[in-house]
Design brief:
Length: 135
Amino acid sequence: MELVFTVIAIVLVGTAYLLLQHFRGGAAQCRRPIGEWLSSYQARSPVEQHEMAEMLLRRSIRLAANMGVQINLDELLGNGAEPADLIAAWQVRLPGVIPAAYLPGTPASTVGALLLIQQVDPSRFHELLGQSAAG
């Protein structure tokens, strides 16, 4: 009986450790510069891309909230869209939305938060970048 308890305890501790590593790994990915994050994202399988996209969206939404803009992921995606679809749209929009001078070294979650803010509250986006709303 004691052996069974020991085995169960080891399995539970191991599972908790693996889950913690999984979530910490995703958070660490989001802190990488956007260029590195996109390269890593493109090299992954579709399932891994989905997980990375979802983690980036969640971290970016949290960061956007810290910047004063509340965003609801379900409303943002709507109509059954996938997080990976939003990342693909970001890749197209990125060069025209955020000046290239801001991108080197900027964490993926920061770029994600800015793109989300630009999408839902353009005036706040321009304010954060120190631009006038006109341009």
